[in-house]
Amino acid sequence: MDVIDKYIESFDPKIKKTLKEIRNFIKKEVPEATEKISYGMPTFYLNGNLLHFAAFKDHYGFFPSPSGVEDFEKELAPYRSGKGTLRFSFDQPIPWNIIQKVIHFRVKENMNKAGKNVCLNQLRRFAQKPSSS
User: Fold this and answer.
1) What does the pLDDT look like over 23-50, one tens digit per residue?
2) Fold of 3-128
């Protein structure tokens, strides 16, 4: 059992189920990313921190960095709770289509920052991948 599994296992079954869904969704979207714990939260890493997610008292937190939120300001307004922070209430469905757009944006951003170290095939894959609305 890795550190992220241990983090997820520390929650009640319903919360645990959703955390696993979030993790698997991100893994499906960015299989090249590695996982670690950073700032006490599950973190996906690809040429730098890509995003963090966590569960709190009454919501899930999704932390894609300020740029990952600012570019989708209008769509994310109902979920925004701070600079680079999204908040999804336990009693509401997770907006997977919005999360997908943010993930793709952050992947492109991190790959562009990495410059020469970037695998061009990865960048092309995200440039061509349609976002579902």
Assistant:
1) 999 999 999 999 999 999 999 999 999 9
2) Aspartate Aminotransferase, domain 1 (3.90.1150)
